[in-house]
Amino acid sequence: MSRSDFAKTKRVVVKIGSSLLTAGGRGLNKEAIAAWVAQMASLRARGIEVILVSSGAVAEGMARLGLKVRPKTLHELQAAASVGQMGLVRVFENNFQQHGLHAAQVLLTHDDLSDRRRYLNARSTLLALLKFGVVPVINENDAVATEEIRFGDNDTLGALVANLIEAELLVILTDQQGLFTADPSIDPAARLVSEINVNDASLDIMAGDSRSGLGRGGMYTKVRAARLASRSGAATVIAAGVAENVIAEIVAGKPIGTYMVPSIGPLLARKRWLAGQLQVKGRLELDDGAVKVLRDAGKSLLAVGVKNVIGGFQRGELVSCVSAQGMEVARGLINYSAEDVRKVVGRPSSEFECILGYADDEELIHRDNMVVM
Ligand SMILES: Nc1ncnc2c1ncn2[C@@H]1O[C@H](COP(=O)(O)OP(=O)(O)O)[C@@H](O)[C@H]1O
Ligand SMILES: N[C@@H](CCC(=O)OP(=O)(O)O)C(=O)O
Known about the structure:
By secondary structure, the protein is α/β, with parallel strands linked by helices. It has helices at residues 18-21, 30-45, 57-65, 74-97, 110-114, 116-131, 154-164, 203-206, 218-230, 246-251, 269-275, 288-297, 338-344, 352-356, and strands at 11-16, 49-54, 103-108, 135-140, 169-174, 195-197, 235-240, 258-261, 282-286, 306-311, 318-322, 328-333, 370-372. A hairpin with a 5-residue loop joins β11 (318-322) and β12 (328-333). The site of adenosine-5'-diphosphate has 25 residues, from α1 and α9. ATP binds at residues 15, 174-175.
């Protein structure tokens, strides 16, 4: 896919980061928000569906409560987020209304997307909103999201939303012009990268953390988000939110920001859901032969190819398959508990009945329930 293909986009997810929205922590930047909403409204008027993922609840809550530094305790953060979310909703509703559009607040936790039924529910709701011509405004449900059930950053949330509703384009607006060869706030010699494949290994060296004290992940989570988004075939562009008409220009295929080129075609719906799961319950270390058949032949995983079991998991839970070098090769839903897998490591499936006293499936992970990374 090249940038000129963006002009054919039918559905786009726009993610706006905290530091942009709150003008570096000084309260909501109403002027900038009005300009972004106007751009999104004009996309809608052209028949392009827009989903907004907006950060800024904590930052706006801090401004409203007069907090100078980001609270340390989870409860204070959650309290700040609930105060700030009111401000976000109000400003977006007012602005979209001026263009004759309705906005809808959708607050999600990771749990909502890791459970297959709730995932499908969230998807149906979002698609219904789009059909009504509404612009969904999504954020993490910070008031209730504890460590175990949080996405952690809105770049990841934006990518998972792009997967959920099969958007072709994820636009991540931030306080930099895009991805630089190093963090430009530290390295003055850093250069803007205009286009790069999501799987390019140099990305892991270039992308650093956030330093603003307002945002959460820096470029690191944006790169990870682009990789996740690419699993449903979505292209990602990271660009400066302050650039004039930035959203429209990106959709028009203009060479601004960093285009993170997706590397694979879209996965089937169930595999997309699998690929977006963030919490694995355990790991299986594979031998080289198993790595090869999973990667090259798209086969199911059998116990004969497993060397080691790490962690505890139950039947049906998500486990990661790693090579001897520790690289993640695949992940999928396991057919046996960790306790049972330990007993059958390296053994042919025909011996399961004898070793375990029962045999449910001959594969540890069936290829339909597995996604190769
Ligand atoms: N290679 C890089 N290129 C650009 N910015 C980088 C890079 N590495 C780290 N960063 C940092 O990432 C920050 C943007 O991320 P973040 O603060 O999380 O913003 P947002 O609120 O938009 O998500 C930049 O201000 C910059 O300091
Ligand atoms: N849900 C949080 C967003 C945290 C976050 O990821 O922020 P950012 O890095 O600015 O996108 C909030 O609204 O404050």
